[in-house]
Each structure stands twice: as structure tokens, then as C-alpha cells.
Amino acid sequence: MTVSSGTWPKMTGSDEFRFLSDLVMTRSSADHTIVRLRDHHAGTTRFANNQVIQNVDARRGSLAVTVAFGGRHGTVGTTDFTAGAIQDVLARAERIARVSPVDPEYLPPPDPCIFPVRETAKPETLAAGPVKRLEYANEAIGHCRMENLMAAGIVSSSTTAVGIATGNGLFGYERRADAKFSLTVQAGDATGWSATAHRSIDHLKVQERTLAAIAKAKRGRSAREMPAGRYPVILEPAAVAGLWAWLIWALDAKSYVKKTSPFAGKLGQAIVDERLTLKNVPDHADLLGEGFTHEGLPSTDSLWIDQGILTQLAYDRFTAKAHGVKSIPTLEAPALSVEGPPAHSIQDLIKDTERAILVSNFWYIRPVNPRDLMLTGMTRDGTFLVEKGEVVSAVKNFRFHESPLQVFRHINMWTSPMEAVNSETGKMLVPAMALPQFHFSSVTRF
Amino acid sequence: MSDPTWDEFAELALKRIAKSGAEYADIRIQDSSTEHIEGEDCRISSVRDARDIGFGVRVLYHGAWGFAASSVLSLEEVPRVAGLAVEIARGSASVALEKVRLASEPVHRDRIVTPYRIDPFSVPLEKKTDLLLNTMEVLQRQSGIARSSASLWARRDRKLFVSTEGSHLVFDLLAGQGDCTATALHEGRFASRSFNTPHLRKGFELIEEADFLREASRVANQAVEKVKAPAVDAGQYDLVLDPEHLSLTIHESCGHPSELDRALGYEANYAGTSFLTTEKRGTFCYGSRHVNLVADNTEPETLAATGYDDDGVACQKWDIVRNGIFVGYCTNREVAPKIGESRSCGSNRADGWGNIPMVRIANIGLEPGEATREQLIADVKRGVYIEGHGSYSIDQRRYNFQFGGDAFWLIENGRRTHMLRDVIYHGITPEFWNNCDGVADRSFRRRYGFITCGKGQPGQSGWMTHAAAPARFRQVHVIRGEESS
């Protein structure tokens, strides 16, 4: 196999994006014009039953033009970058905007600013192609074959050129790249799982994660059924991230103002344990920070929950302006930390636990009640009973029924923040945590 | 010199592949237009119009797949991407244990066009935005309504499928949908109620036939009633489920477990596997004798009725559950032979040119019974009537599920009485379907479509329609969906 990413056509560069956006700006008759670029090239090697089942590589470049006449606006997108197509896109956007009703919440594009420059595209990830992905997939499969276990997972890498340009001179261009590895190891009825995402493909730690998933799968055999009920729990980082993702998504300021938010009236109040702090840390090497947002706002460090107190909401520009919020923070690189001395490892949390359910990950978390942020979901890929400082057996998977606003009101023990992703959330840094009580509402059959 | 035609691009790609020794290849060239208009709180918040053009080439080389795709449709890019797909397939083949063997399928040469009365893309934008603004005004006119939203969506897919076996399929497909939602506030609580037209392969007549203003008035009233309604008391209830609600129950608890690729472990790392393992086919009691679940990708206007799937297999109709017994899977040409089937049932779909097709849930519907809805309710002493979609979650083998809904009414002594709030029910899939003891007749049958069914890595959105008439389920465990439960 001789393919490398170098055989792909060059991604849209900064100068090319400036040329394309100038093409739009010089022809636009609108009061305001915004051009957005997303040129995405990604490949995934997917395996199951210890062999490759899917091996794909796709490139999609897209441009979107938004124009506004007064408060009337419209957006048209295309994957065709030819001059004629781009002029057609502008003409269609202008036609839409002219007949659209005035949007009372429309705001002109943000003022020009200098965006932070971040190392969002590591050369090793940019250079990775199907050969590298296949090599990593084979490494994971090989370990599982040796143990007579079944591997299913993915290795993926992608690079994206992202740009924003406005008629008032705002210009941003950034190359972003990331790589992902996730693996489910099947040992009969038991499964073990591990996953990561990183700007550097060299940071996937395929061997280490594969061995961890294998150990979990082997330990998960002969799961016993325990009754539903309230138990102390140890949540591994992926499980913590799954719950916190829903808390983060609920921070929308407009819902807060309209009183349709679970946080209504709670800004400035304690919402979780007073030792918990949530920040945006876009410069952290293990997070997927970005230089700017889709709206053309810079991504910067910000504080969202300070020692348990809700200090920040996720503002759209209109709501921010209406409430005098000058600087709109972003939360694409969340880091959750706990004040105080951490346990050294998850194993130390186990060692200091009398009795608890150890949860590797949650699956299919969905809101039950948006008023109190009650969530439901299932444990998945490694649920265990801990007694007297040891994992004593695997247990069958539970459905839970809990609100993060309740369960994180008090935490017993924690580790330092660790990298965490799961199948439905982006990447975060969160600690593993031991919580005094967690409501498992029913049990499933495996 | 005129631009090359799609047929010429396809020929170029397949010629490039022919030299490689691959046993099979196909190319899909697609041009998709989407219009999405969204309103929020009595304003039009977004009008977006997007065109997505590109092609994807799939190659089977020595029993292993390679796929490459690009949005640059040019004389240079098409053969290059075709060559890349071959190279990727060679890489896959170098580590293949079990070779892919495709079920045979006749060669098809056809053109499929969605019939429509009104082209949604030709309807003036002002007419659409007026409809949404008027709808939101009606929603907000109701005292107690704090927020409103409304939207319209339309999509046209023009597609060419050409395979090395000689199939040549041209598609011009339409789909559309519209909806509105009211959110009511009362004593610090809030609750929403929605009206949704089904997603169907119809023109703008789908929107015109739905009386948005009347529906807006109804859902606004019901949102206010819902937010003030008493919370349900936890316990065992008989449930009568309306077709829109059942469409999601069918999707999650029957649709996904009947995907053969899941049962074979292909999705073990993400969407999950299936409790409907292959040895259960033909013997497993999935539901009661009232439960007949039929996959029908030939029913006009439904989302999966596209004439042919992305394997080039003709759309078909088949049984998933017959008289309560699990009898059939959704398959594609790759997995059908693994359970001894000589032909795929035609459920292989990609969500666009940029993704490789995979097994997708078909248009699976619950066959009507013989009762009326009122007869189903009349035989309930203590129960809940549920409409629409709410909270939903199910385990990775599709056993343990939990569903909410959009609106709930208490049934007492055979009569639907007042609304309830915060109703959540949960159960184990086959136990739940075995507790089904009645389905309403065909006159109550309705169809609801899904366009955001997530599966695959990289993730893809699947489209399918689930039809049902109201059905009754005995002694289901109901809990209250709030903190104190």
C-alpha cells in the first residue's frame, strides 16, 4: 500500500481563502457580508470481529456566504469552489436576504480582531494517512487476537481548514487536525472499552489503551445481576464527561433569560460541590482548543464554574448585547478540576472504597426532564462491584436516572483531571470521582 | 467544450478501477440541495440554503472494501479518487481474514423520480416565512406561552449510481417536513408541546395539507394544560400509544435490533450489537400474536422508498416479526450471505456522496389490527394515552429502554380524562411487545419519518419511515420524570 496524505490535493490555504472571500466581498451589494470556509479531509479505518470492515477517505470543501440588508439576512452554502458557483451563491444569498423578514435579533459581524494563534494542526497528524491508520488498527487487532478476544473500533485522522472573513475586515484562518482511536474488546458477553482524541496522532497510545480495554473485557466476564437502587459510585473520566457534557449544553443564556433553563435564577449561586471548578483552557495541549468560533469570536481562557458557583453562561451575541455582556466566552476546551489533594489513580479510589459500583462509561444519555436536568442512560463496557478496596465482580448494566446538578453536589474522592471522550461527547479533562450516591433505576439483561 | 456529463465521470472512474483487478466497484455522484427555514420566538432566525455536490467511489478488491470521496468533480479528481479507493481496498485486503462475498442482484437500469404537486424550491420564500411567523404568532397568542418555534425543511437529491456489474440508476428525490413548538411557563415550571408533519417524500403540498394555524392553536392550548397538569404517580399502567409516539418505539426497539450488521458485531464499538442474534430468527417470540412488524421500502412517499438502495438493490417488502415471531433482518449485499440469504433485502444506504453505505433500518411499520382507538381505550381501567416523542434511551443491545412522550392523558375506567406531565415508561423490549394486546385498524394508521438516525463511524444520518396505528400495552412500569422520583 503506497497511499499517503500527500497525494491529496492541497487543502484551501489562507491566501486562497482570502482570494475567494475577496471575490465575494467585491461583488456583494449587501450591508454586511460574511464568508465561511470549511475544507475537511478525513479518513477512518474501522474494524470489527478482528478485521477491517471499512476503510474510507473523504474530502469535502464547503463555503457559506451570509449577507444582510439591514436586519434581513440569508445564508447559502456550496461545495463548488469555482468562480461562477461562488458568484451564484452570493446572488442567491442576496435574493434570500432581500425577501426575508427583518430579524430583530440580527447583529452586524463582529469587529476585526486578532485571533489567538494555537498549535491546532500537528504535522504528524497532517501527514497521517490510510497506512498509519491501518498500522494502528492492526496493532489493536493483534493484541486482541493474541488473547483470543474480539476487537471492534476505529482509527481516524482528519484535517480541516477553517476560515471566516467579513466585509468589515475581520479575517480568520486556521488549520485544525485531530486523530481518534476507540476500541471495544469483546470477551464473550463482556466488553471493555477505551477511547481518545488528540491533536497529535502520536498521542493516541494505542497499545496502552488496547491493553486497558482487554483487561476490562476479561474482568467483565461472569457479570452478576445486582438490584436497581441507590449506590455509591466511582465514575471513570468518560462517565464523568458524559454527565458534564449535558450540564455544559444546558448553559445557554437565552434559555436562562427566558426562564426555560435548569439554571434559571442560579447564576452566582452554588450548583455543584464547592471544590469543583470548570474552565475553558484552549491552550491545553491535551484539549482541542481553537483560535476562533463559527461566529468569528476569539476563543480564550474563561471561568464557568468557580468553586461550585455558576459564574458564566453561553451567550449568543444578541443576548450578550441585551444584557451588557461585552466579552463572550467559549467552552470548546473544557477542563473540570477539584480543589484539594487528589488520589493518584482510579486504582487508589477503588482501594479507599468500602462498597461502590465502578462505572467505566455511560451510553445513550438523554434528558428526561429539562427543568431539573434529570438524565437517563445506561452503563456500558465495564461495570463492576467494588468491595473493601477491590473489584470483586462484574455486574450487569444498569439504567440510571440522575441529574448532574444533584450527584455532583458532593464528591467523596477524586483524581487529577484526565483526558476523557465518549461516543457522544467532545473531549474534556475531568477527574475520576467517587460519589456518595447514584440512582440506578433498572437493570438490563447483560 | 462542454462540461463532462455525470455518465462520463462515472465511466472515467470505473475505467480506472477496471485496470486494478478489483472484483466490484460503484460510483455515486450526488447533488443535494437543502432549504431550512427556522423561526424562534416570533422571528425568522435563520434561512439557509445549501448545495452539496460530490462523488464517492467504492471498490471491492480481493474481498476487502476501499472507499474514497471528494467534493471536487473534475476530470483530474475523479480518476485520482477512484485510484485512491483501489489503493485503500488493497490495504484492507492485506489484513482481511474473511473475504466479502456479495449477494447477487440483477442488473438494473432505471430512473426514479419523487412524484410531487408543488416543488418546494419553487415556492416563494415570503410565503414560507409568512407561514412560520403566523404560526408562531398563534402559538404566542395563547396566555401562558413563553416561547415558540417553527421550521420548514426541504431537500432534493439528484444522484447517479453506476456499478461495474452494469447497473445504472438515476435518482431525483424530494423530501420535506415542517413543525412548530410552544413552551409554556407556570409557577417556575416549563413544558413544551409540538406539532410535526411527518418527513415524507412529497412536495410542498405536504405543508399546505397540514393546517399549521389550527395545529398551532391546539398545541399552544395543550402546552399550557400540560405545564399545569399533575405529575404522574409511579406504578403499573396500561398504555395506549399513538402512531407518532410508536414510530420512535418501533425505531429503537425493533428497527435497530433488526439490522443484521449490528447482530454480526459490525457496530460493536459504537451503536452497539443486537439482542436479536442470528440463531433467534424464526423461533424467538419477540411479541404477542398482535405484533406484526413489516419492512416496506416500496410504499410511496416513505423515506426509504427510493426505488433502489446504495448497493443498487431494488427496494422490497418483507417481514421482520410475523405473528409475534422474529423472522427477518434488514440486510445489504455484504451481510445477507452470512445468514444464508441469496439476496439482499435492499437496506444499504449512505447519507450522501461522502460516506460509504451501510445497513440501515428499513421502513418498518406495525401492521394494523381490527380495533378502533376508542375500543382500545375503553378496555383500560387505569392507563395513560401518549402522543408524540419525548425523552428516549435504550441500551446497546436494544433490550432495556426508557421513553417519555410529548403529551400524556390519564385513562380511567375506559375514558381519556385529563393531561398528565412527566410520564416516563421503561421496560425490556420483548416483554413490552409481548404485552401488546391490541392494535387499531388501518383507518388510524399514520406514518412518521426519521432523518437523524445516527449510526456508523464516521457518523451518518439514516432516513426511514415508521407507520403504525395506535396500540395498547398492558401493565407497563411508569415512573415520574423529575428529581423527586
Q: Describe it for me?
A:
The complex is a heterodimer of chains A (446) and B (485). Chain A contains 10 helices and 19 strands. With 446 residues, chain A is an alpha+beta fold. A 6-stranded antiparallel sheet of chain A has the order 3-2-1-4-5-6. The two termini of chain A are 41 Å apart. The model of chain B has no long low-confidence stretch (mean pLDDT 97). In chain B, the strands form 5 sheets. In chain B, strands 8, 15, 16, 17, 18, 19, 20, 21 and 24 form a 9-stranded mixed sheet that branches. Chain B contains 9 helices and 24 strands. The radius of gyration of chain B is 24 Å and the shape is globular. In chain B, helix 1 (6-18) packs parallel to helix 2 (77-93). Chain B has helices at residues 6-18, 77-93, 125-141, 205-209, 212-228, 243-255, 260-263, 373-378, 429-434, and strands spanning 24-40, 43-61, 64-70, 109-113, 145-163, 168-186, 189-196, 235-241, 293-296, 317-322, 325-326, 348-349, 358-359, 364-366, 382-387, 392-394, 400-403, 407-412, 415-420, 423-428, 436-439, 446-455, 460-468, 471-480. The chains are: A alpha+beta (446), B alpha+beta (485). Chains A and B meet through strand 1, strand 2, strand 3, helix 2 and helix 4 of A and strand 2, strand 3, helix 2, helix 3 and strand 16 of B. Strand 3 of chain A pairs parallel with strand 2 of chain B, so a sheet runs across the interface.
Summarize the structure.
The complex is a heterodimer of chains A (446) and B (485). Chain A contains ten helices and 19 strands.
